[in-house]
């Protein structure tokens, strides 16, 4: 029931993810942030088994930071995506991670990029992508309304269209979503779309 | 010298009828294979069989004054109640508590291990470990054992420099920071009472009563929960056990027996 989707616009990439942490029929938490800031200009939106998701994305984050320490320059988005895919592939036949990832980033030279990396280490550079049951609704919505070089307002509007569609059509739809954006000014949280508020919102 | 060739003898002939070619020649060493069609699945089944269901109710929540932790005390093996007096709230150190759900041995051992690691951290760094750090230590250990059949569903509750902290950690490797959690087979029932009655600014007595009530209602509906509802409070000076009430007695306290009208009454039949 985890929904993760994203798209590339004019000079930016945006990703959205649901924020429910679920265990069979129980919702343990409805403000769990599943989009990790990988470094200043990269975002990883991950969905999958809870332990794998956090452990694997943190592992990638620390290795990306280590590269920057060692070499003085940050990895490009393409390099980070290929590194992530490589780690998934190496573990696949031994101790596989059940994580699906959308990696969004901005490089000065090449602009914004979105990479689709699934749990069996498939890697695609895409303009728009989605994972989970929500993908059945968001992919066609994005296919219909997407055009290249969308503005931030148009892209957020499309993200909201997808969220509305997921909320109305998915049988156990997650109540809350988080939207994060990455552009030349860096990776940051853009907005939350909440229908259920925790009395004290504490994020991981 | 007679060589021992018993290892080369096959346990049964490969083909039913003897064949001239095979006679006198051993058919090759054989070994026993599991009696199953699904080679890969049977291993997973074996692990699942050992894994006990998390028959318990534990809960914890953060409020203005600190953290309230409560649990039942029943241990069940399928339909048999093996104990009504299990300590499900484990004292990791004087300012941190862990709750037990899942395998009792797994929870007790790994909480004790966590206590050791926390103490080592204190000695090495001359300061107490944070709740964030302690829960991450436990989560990483459990993650490294994933798929091997550990069954742990625990909450780490404590008070550190940043104030009250509460984390949910389980044997699948999941770790969640939150303000309200309930774990175990009775947890949906406990959530029903806890979510409705929760306010951030409660007094310690109100919070303890809410915790006790939530455990009671869960034990009422869930067969695998029962025994004694223990309530602990974690404040700036560490944890303190507040109460331990038998849920049977709580039932009659909350719902005392009322005299009611008799609908049908058996009467003696006069004569034969």
Give a concise summary.
Chain A: It holds the Pfam family Proteasome. Chain A: Keywords: Cytoplasm, Nucleus, Proteasome. The complex is a heterodimer of chains A (204) and B (272). With 204 residues, chain A is α+β, with helices and mostly antiparallel strands.
Q: What features would you describe in this structure?
A:
With 204 residues, chain A is of the alpha+beta class. Chain A has four helices and twelve strands, in the order ββββββααββββααββ. Chain A has helices at residues 50-71, 77-92, 135-145, 152-169, and strands at residues 4-8, 12-18, 21-23, 26-29, 35-39, 42-48, 99-107, 111-117, 123-126, 128-131, 177-183, 186-193. In chain A, the strands form three sheets. Chain A has a five-stranded antiparallel sheet with strand order 10-1-2-11-12, with helices on one face. In chain A, strand 11 (177-183) and strand 12 (186-193) form a beta hairpin. In chain A, helix 3 packs antiparallel against helix 4. Chain A is globular and about 45 Å long. With 272 residues, chain B is α+β, with helices and mostly antiparallel strands. In chain B, 31% of the residues lie in helices and 25% in strands. Chain B has helices spanning 41-50, 104-125, 131-144, 187-197, 204-221, 247-254, and strands spanning 58-63, 66-71, 75-77, 80-83, 89-93, 96-99, 153-160, 163-170, 175-177, 180-183, 228-235, 238-246. In chain B, the strands form three sheets. In chain B, strands 10-1-2-11-12 form a five-stranded antiparallel sheet. A five-stranded antiparallel sheet of chain B has the order 5-6-7-8-9, with helices on one face. In chain B, helix 4 (187-197) runs antiparallel to helix 5 (204-221). Chain B is flat. In chain B, 39% of the residues are buried. The chains are: A alpha+beta (204), B alpha+beta (272). Chains A and B meet through strand 4 and helix 1 of A and helix 3, strand 9 and helix 4 of B.
């Amino acid at each position: 029931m985890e929904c993760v989707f994203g798209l590339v616009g004019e000079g930016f990439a945006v990703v959205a993810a649901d924020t429910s942490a679920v265990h069979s029929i129980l919702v343990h938490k409805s403000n769990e942030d599943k989009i990790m800031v990988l470094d200043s200009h990269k975002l990883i939106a991950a969905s999958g088994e809870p332990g794998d998701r956090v452990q694997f994305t943190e592992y990638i984050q620390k290795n990306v930071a280590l590269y920057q320490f060692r070499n003085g320059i940050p990895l490009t988005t393409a390099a980070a995506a290929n590194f992530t895919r490589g780690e998934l592939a190496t573990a696949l036949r031994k101790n596989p991670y059940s994580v699906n990832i959308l990696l969004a980033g901005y490089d000065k030279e090449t602009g914004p990029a979105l990479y689709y990396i699934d749990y069996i280490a498939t890697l695609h550079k895409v303009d728009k992508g989605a994972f989970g049951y929500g993908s059945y609704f968001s992919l066609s919505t994005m296919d219909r309304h997407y055009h290249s070089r969308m503005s931030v307002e148009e892209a957020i509007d499309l993200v909201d269209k997808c969220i509305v569609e997921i909320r109305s059509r998915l049988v156990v739809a997650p109540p809350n979503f988080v939207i994060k954006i990455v552009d030349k000014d860096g990776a940051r949280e853009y907005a939350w779309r909440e229908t259920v508020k925790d009395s004290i919102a504490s994020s991981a | 010298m007679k060589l021992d060739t018993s290892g080369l003898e096959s346990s049964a002939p490969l083909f039913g009828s003897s064949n001239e070619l095979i006679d006198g020649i051993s058919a090759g060493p054989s070994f026993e294979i599991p009696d199953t069609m699904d080679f890969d699945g049977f291993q997973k089944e074996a692990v699942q069989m050992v894994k006990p269901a998390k028959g318990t109710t534990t809960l914890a929540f953060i409020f203005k004054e600190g953290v309230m932790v409560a649990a039942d005390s029943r241990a069940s093996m399928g339909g048999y109640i093996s104990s009504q007096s299990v300590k499900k709230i484990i004292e990791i150190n004087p300012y941190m508590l862990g709750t037990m759900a899942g395998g009792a041995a797994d929870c007790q051992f790994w909480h004790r291990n966590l206590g050791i690691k926390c103490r080592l951290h204190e000695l090495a760094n001359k300061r107490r470990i944070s709740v964030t750090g302690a829960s991450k230590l436990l989560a990483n250990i459990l993650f490294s054992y994933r798929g091997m059949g550990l069954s742990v569903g625990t909450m780490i509750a404590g008070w550190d420099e940043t104030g009250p902290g509460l984390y949910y950690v389980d044997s699948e490797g999941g770790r969640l920071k939150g303000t309200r959690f309930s774990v175990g087979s009775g947890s949906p029932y406990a959530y029903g009472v806890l979510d409705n009655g929760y306010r951030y600014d409660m007094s310690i007595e109100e919070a303890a009563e809410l915790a006790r009530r939530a455990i009671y209602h869960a034990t009422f509906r869930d067969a695998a929960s029962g025994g004694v509802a223990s309530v602990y409070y974690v404040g700036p000076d560490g944890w303190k056990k507040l109460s331990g009430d038998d849920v049977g007695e709580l039932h009659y306290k909350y719902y005392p027996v009322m005299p009611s009208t008799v609908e049908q009454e058996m009467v003696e039949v006069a004569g034969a």
